Amino acid sequence: MKSLFSTPVGRLRIISYLEGISLLILLFIAVPLKYLSGSPGLTKLMGPVHGLLFLLFIFNAVSVGVEYKWKFKDTTWKVILACFIPFGTFYIDKKILSKI
């Protein structure tokens, strides 16, 4: 685990995991709680957290793509697209990031 913090790809993998978890919490727990039980507290908490992790993920994905000279149409766009899809960051981690 400590080796993940020492490389740009490792840090991207950690951020992608956190971003994916925050998206799942927001979509499957916080939003239903807000609309089904009228309790917006978790949405107010998770919205900004997910937004920050989303921006960190995009910034790190682009910087890792530039540093590792990824072709945008081959790799970088797939990594960026993954953060918009639930479970997408976990799929990209397994298929692309873990092999680098």
Automatic annotation (TrEMBL):
Compartments it resides in: Cell membrane
Task: Tell me if Nucleotide-binding is a UniProt keyword of this record.
Answer: no
Main location as per UniProt: membrane
Q: Which organism is it from?
A: Chitinophaga qingshengii
Report what the protein is called. DUF3817 domain-containing protein
Question: How would you describe this protein's topology in the membrane?
Answer: Multi-pass membrane protein
Q: Which residues form the DUF3817 domain?
A: 10-96
Q: What are the protein's UniProt keywords? A: Cell membrane, Membrane, Transmembrane, Transmembrane helix
The UniProt transmembrane annotation reads 14-33, 45-63, 75-92
